[in-house]
Design brief:
With 215 residues, the protein is an all-alpha fold. It contains 8 helices and no strands.
Length: 215
Amino acid sequence: MRKNLSQKPAKKAQTPAPRRQRLSPEVRSELILDCAARLILEGGLTEISMERVGRDAGVSKALIYNYFPNMADLLRALLEREIKELRKRGIEEVQAADNYQDLVRRTTRMYIRHIAQRGPLLQRLWNEGSVARSVAEKHKRGQDETMRYFAERARKEYGLPQQVAIAAVDMQMALTERAAQHLHNTNNDVELATDICVHLLLGGMESLSRAYRKK
């Protein structure tokens, strides 16, 4: 059969371009903070600007200002998010613990691992004086609440006077902080750093318990 050369080829059906998904303000805000965190980790605070964050987040500079009026507000929101996430993880470990010893190991491991992952970001944000001052009071309240909780658990577990338990936990929180900061001394082995720190924490409490039973 001969082809009809005058017949025009049928047009291919065009696939409509996918619609750009409209993000909620909450999701958009988190995306902006994620981009800011990545830029700080990669190049430090000197490399970050509202224009750069907007470009990486795929939004206009004007839109960023709708969420964060200035860079200080953006950095403050980022630091508050980091603190909130750390506290959330801590609560999860507290709820999962079977006993005091398990509680200490879980929370110590969580903190050391978190600092290994997010420590450089946290350090750079805390070094920004105006940003750190804006969240310092709220952060201290959270730390005090954590200390009181652990002190009460330690007092009941080891039969310590309340004042001794509070002082001991306060010092032990500083020890955990140092263990996280010196993680590189154990070749970034979170489990090894955790194990060393937990033995020091629990051994110290047991020694205090023996000492104050004699008194």
